[in-house]
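User: Please predict the structure of the protein below. I'd like the answer in structure-token form so I can feed it into my own downstream comparison script.

Assistant: Understood. Taking the following sequence of 256 residues as input:
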Amino acid sequence: NEAGYSCSFIDIESNSSRAVGEILRAYMIVSIDSFKSFDFVLKYNKSIKFMTINFSLPGYPSVCADESSGGAMAARLFHEKEHSHVAVFTELDDVCFRLRQQAFASTFKMLNPKCVVDTIVFAKHKPGEPPDAQHKLALKRYFSSVSAMPSGFFCTNGYATMVLYKHLRAKGFSIPDEVALLGYDNERFYDFIETPLSRIVFSLDDYSAVVSTQILNELQGKMPVPTSTLVPVRLIDNHSIIELSSMHQKESEKAI
């Protein structure tokens, strides 16, 4: 706004007549969730300027959190604490979560070729079911079949962290003395749980500033070549991952 521009939030699918008028003169920010709407936009204005966020298209500007660095950071932390068997709790349909999981697995195996990485995959939420239904189903399947309990868990998003945290606590596991847990994102629930959790985050303020600056540079002709920018991530270390040698094993791991 300070630069003389305005920002509109338009629900394209429910207000198409207004949306068409807006998009003919707009700069559009496209996320994965709005990609179908983006196809709709291109039918009316194939020359529209746009930027993608959370994913990239070759030849177009984009801003993404450094997801791969987040996964690699998690792997290094577990390795530094001498863990060699970690389970990753994730969805794989979302490219952000998939990049975090892939970077974790590849980095962990590079640091310790003999390590074990389990992947607990939950499906997307289905209409009409509780939001944690698929998470709980994936956990039930995993713990009913796993032969050796991992010493730690890495969750690739905040909601998955909350579900797994509640699951472990309900089964009587002490974090981090009996099991390590590393989360992601800066969800509100982290402020209200009994055990402080370490997590990997990126600053939404930094993200927004990068998006705004990049759009202004392009609109003002300061960015002739499309630029892809990665927003850095960082670790909030609340010591929910401790050295493996300092942990003690729960008497009945299968009780989980």
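That's the full token string. The beta strands are 27-30, 49-53, 62-65, 85-90, 116-121, 152-155, 180-184, 198-201, 228-231, 234-236.
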